[in-house]
Amino acid sequence: MSAAPMVVSPAPLLERLPLDLRDAVLGLLPESLRWLASGLITILVLLAVFGLLFAYLTLAERKLLGRVQNRPGPNRTGWFGLLQPFADAVKALTKEDVVPRAADQVLHYLAPVVLVALSLMGFAVIPFGRLLVPVELDAAVLYFFAAGAATELAVFMAGWASRNKYSLLAAMRALAQLISYELPLLLSFVPVIMLAGTLSTTGIVAAQDGWRFGFIPHWHILTPWGFAGFVIFMIAAFAESNRSPFDLPEAESELIAGHLTEYSGFKYALFFMAEYFGMCALSAMAVTLFLGGWRAPLPFLEFIPSYLWFGLKLITLLVGFIWVRATMPRLRIDQLTRLAWKFLVPLSLINLGTAAFWSLTTTWTGPLYLARWAVALAIVIIPFVTLGRQLSAGNGPRTYRYAS
Amino acid sequence: MSPLHLCLLLSAGLFCIGLTAALCRGNAILVLLGIELMLNAANLNFIAFWRYGSGSGSTGVVFVLFSIAVAAAEAAVGLALVIAVYRHQRNIRLQEATRLKG
Amino acid sequence: MLLPFIIIASLTLASAAVAMMLRNLIHSALLLVLSWTGIAGFYLWAGAEFVAFAQILVYVGAISMVVLFAVLLTRPARDVDSPLPAPTVIRLASGLMGGAMVASVLLTAILATRITGGRAHAPSVTVRDLGALLAGPHAASLLAAGVILTVALLGAIIIAAPSPRNPEDPS
Question: In this prediction, does ipTM exceed 0.85?
Answer without folding.
Answer: yes
